[in-house]
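@here heads up, posting the sequence + SMILES for the zinc ion run so it's all in one place. Ping me if the SMILES looks off, I pulled it from an old spreadsheet.
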Amino acid sequence: MPLYEYLCECCGAREEVFARSVDRAATPPPCPNGKAGKTNPHRMKRIMSPFARHLTEGDKLAEAEATYGAEVEAVMGKGPDIGRLARRYDRLSHDLPPGDIPPSS
Ligand SMILES: [Zn+2]
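bot reply: prediction finished. Complex structure tokens:
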């Protein structure tokens, strides 16, 4: 997930936005100092984020995990419990007859 940074051309306020897609990044966030209305001079313009470039892949993953981990888990479900599966296969193997498994025709 890319991190975009926006700068207000009017007052210099900065906002950082995690974008899920390029489409969403195309819509700048509102300036925190701006007021809604047609004469609002506060316009956020996307700038290159120097902060984002200094993050390692691990930092980005940790940040994304902290921000979206619960959301991803809700959609994808929890990961499999490898220990439980291993114990289950071990139990099942006890019921197999001794010797090699005969080749399937
Ligand atoms: Zn502003």
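MO: The pocket of zinc ion is lined by residues 8, 10-11, 13, 31, 33-34, 42 (CB under 6 Å).
MO: One more: The chain has one domain: 3-77.
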